[in-house]
Every structure is written in structure tokens, then in C-alpha cells.
Design goal:
- The chain is mainly alpha-helical and about 200 residues long.
- It has one domain.
- The chain has 6 helices and 5 strands; from the N terminus they run ααβββββαααα.
- A 3-stranded mixed β-sheet has the order 3-2-5, with helices on one face. A two-stranded antiparallel ribbon has the order 1-4.
- Helix 1 runs antiparallel to helix 3.
- The longest helix has about 40 residues.
- The protein is elongated and about 95 Å long.
């Protein structure tokens, strides 16, 4: 008998298939957000200031994971590690540990206000749109995938109706062929089988 598609097996198959499709995109988004945060940081503190800040003993400045900035009329916190949230983070285990030293006055509120025409404001809008688009694509794929998985009740039937999902589902199929009740090899020897046709 084929393995039943339980809720947990459906979730595992869904997670693996979505990770296959979206892991690289989410990783690239995290890297892009971290690079953008580094660019804002470099704009906020000059190279000489950053060098002086880095030379200070540990504990003198906050070693922050994010900083508040206002882009046009929108206040946001940008994360030096490229942090993103929501369902898409389930697509990958990839994480960055980037942190930056910031002045105490920048630990609250907006460290800087960028006009809508500023290149960093424009870049922020592009990354924001990219992130929203990726979230929508992930949510749509997850919704359709869950619907397809709910339409069948066993792993065997899932693979029969959707062969392309087999790489993600096969490991859950525990059906074993039933063994013959009789020792056929022994019987074959006794009866001098096989033969071309019965007498």
C-alpha cells in the first residue's frame, strides 16, 4: 500500500520544491539588500569617519544590525545583513551576519532623509519592488502547489499524476513489493522450471 500524503509530508514536499525554485532568488535578494545597506552606510559616514569608528575599542559604539533611514516620505530600517521577512525566508537557510558600528545619535529615528530624486532613494524603490515581486511569485507558487498536493491522497498517486514532482516526493514512498509466500527459487529447482511452454 502506498504512503498516505499526510500534512507533514505535503509540507516537506512543498518546502523542498519551493526551495528548489526560489532559494537562489532569495539569496540574491539578501545580498542585494546587504550591498544597498552598505552603500547607505558609506554615504552616511565618510571613509575617514568609518576608519576612526573602526579603530575605537569594542563597546564604545553600537555594533548595529540595522539603521533607520527615510527615503522620500517613507521611513524604514535597512539591515546590514540584508534581512528579509515573510514566507520567502523559508526558501533558504542562507544568512549573513553583517553588522556596522554607528553613532549613538543614529540608533533611533532616521539617520538621514533622502529626497525622492536621490540615487539611493531610487535604488531603494527598485529593491523594494524586486522584493515585493519575489514575495508575490512565492505566495502564488505556494498556493498552487498546496492545491495540487491536496488533490491526491497518496505519494504514489501524486507521482503518477505529476511525474515531475518525483524528485521531491519519492523519498516519502515506503511501499514495498509484497514478497511471495512460497520460496519460488526452491520450487523452480524441484519442478525443473522455467520451461518454454506447459505440457
Amino acid at each position: 500500500m502506498s504512503t498516505r500524503l499526510t500534512i507533514s509530508i505535503r509540507e516537506e514536499i512543498s518546502k523542498a520544491a519551493l526551495a528548489h525554485r526560489f532559494a537562489d532568488d532569495v539569496k540574491a535578494l539578501i545580498d542585494a539588500k546587504a550591498e544597498f545597506a552598505a552603500a547607505v552606510y558609506a554615504d552616511l559616514y565618510s571613509k575617514a569617519d568609518r576608519q576612526r569608528m573602526d579603530e575605537l575599542p569594542d563597546g564604545w559604539l553600537e555594533n548595529a544590525e540595522n539603521i533607520g533611514v527615510q527615503f522620500g516620505g517613507k521611513y524604514t530600517r535597512i539591515y546590514f545583513n540584508g534581512y528579509t521577512y515573510g514566507q520567502i525566508i523559508k526558501a533558504t537557510d542562507y544568512k549573513r551576519e553583517d553588522r556596522r558600528r554607528i553613532l549613538d545619535k543614529h540608533s533611533r529615528g532616521a539617520a538621514k532623509v533622502y529626497e525622492p530624486s536621490h540615487k539611493l532613494c531610487i535604488e531603494h524603490d527598485k529593491i523594494d519592488q524586486r522584493e515585493r515581486g519575489l514575495r508575490e511569485a512565492y505566495d502564488t507558487a505556494e498556493r498552487h502547489l498546496k492545491s495540487a498536493l491536496a488533490a491526491v491522497s497518496t505519494v504514489k498517486r501524486l507521482i503518477e499524476t505529476w511525474p515531475e514532482i518525483a524528485p521531491f516526493a519519492t523519498k516519502f514512498e515506503t511501499e514495498k513489493p509484497s514478497l511471495p509466500a512460497l520460496p519460488t527459487q526452491h520450487l523452480n529447482k524441484i519442478l525443473d522450471l522455467p520451461v518454454a511452454e506447459a505440457a
